[in-house]
Amino acid sequence: MIKTFTAVSLALVAAPLSAATLTGFASLPAETFVPGPTSGQFQNPANGVTPPYVGQQPVQGFSSVISNGAGGFLAMSDNGFGGKGNSADALLLVHDISVDFRTETGGTGAVTVNSSTPLSDPDDLVSFPIVAEQTFYPNGAGDIPVDGAIASGRLLTGADFDIESIRRDASGNFWIGEEFGPFLLHTNADFELIAPEIATPGVQSPNNPFLGAAAPNLGGSRGYEGMAINEAGDTLYTLLEGTVAGDPARTLRLSEFDIADASFTGEQWLYPLDPAGAAIGELTLVEDNVFVVIERDGGQGPSAAFKKLFLIDLDQSDADGFLKKTEIVDLLAIDDPFDLDGDGSNVFSFPFVTIESVLPLDAYTLLVANDNNFPGSAGRTAGVPDNNEFIRITLDQPIASLAPVPLPAAGWLMIAGLAGLAAMRRRG
């Protein structure tokens, strides 16, 4: 159940407690492709890029990045070209990548795509029709045949699922959070589904294939943007991007999922969006019950005003039951003493509309990456599609030490006193 209380609370969000320095920078060119079925046949041109992409798939922007266990990373492409309606020929891909960060002492700043693996459903487990089962793509005029590789391999596409978060469990299998249901997907190490999609109890988006005549209670593209896993690898924590109808305004459900039982436990928390924020981008474990969350507005380039990292501790809620937050990094103002991105400035900014990956590298250091919405976003240079940038941010204090802490007893007395004064004013 959602943890809620009736007592009056104050918005207690701490100011940044640690200096953040850019200690690594790398970039993958926007127009990076891998071999595959022709894609982009239902996509509009943008920022000087004209589809389709014959015989290839764009690596796309990354919606989630995790360690590959061998010094590199697994980076999951977003669902395709921005929506169900234009992404039927876009494969759902996970890429094994290497990042050679440019640092104070060297490095090329290059990102290498070593291999790319599509998600697939070889055992016909998805409980609704997928693109691979159809004769023609469901997008456009419906007269373009589904590529033979998609059909024969039962490869999943961006019209089947909108994948946003990925985690590896203790057995080496993967869990993927998506937004159309929203659903959880369970795959083996080869990214083949090993179970039907898992629905979210009591929550359906407008793109849910089982919605029928019912009204959705979650906005479109507001599903599992964030998902974390505990250190034991047996419990997931899923964070919706949007508010479920009936929940307090501008709060997001964070739910616990038991991997062994393959079910939600019913334990939930409410994450409060900052007044300046439009959405979250990711939820990642730091240690124990401490997690880092990306929050952002909808701006890019000069219009980007709010791109931040916060810490939460599941044991620390305010008097209304909302999780307390501590701001730790302003992604629009990072110290860059060595000008690692080569822009001539010692202040680095990450002004992208969607920033969807954060990963602790050690006790002091975070990796952050953007989703470039290829080719639609142009946060670096107007009219030019964004690259996929990877940045390494080092704090001057251990990350976990910056988590929210319990409010001292005197603080609760102060809140009670303020609440009493407010009540007297209302009566007056």
TrEMBL record:
The keyword Signal applies. Keywords: Membrane, Signal, Transmembrane, Transmembrane helix. The keyword Signal applies. InterPro entries: Phytase-like_dom (IPR027372), VPLPA-CTERM (IPR022472). Residues 57-374 form the Phytase-like domain. Residues 1-19 form the signal peptide. It comes from the Bacteria. The chain crosses the membrane at residues 405-424. NCBIfam families: VPLPA-CTERM. This is VPLPA-CTERM protein sorting domain-containing protein. The lineage of its organism: Bacteria, Pseudomonadati, Pseudomonadota, Alphaproteobacteria, Rhodobacterales.
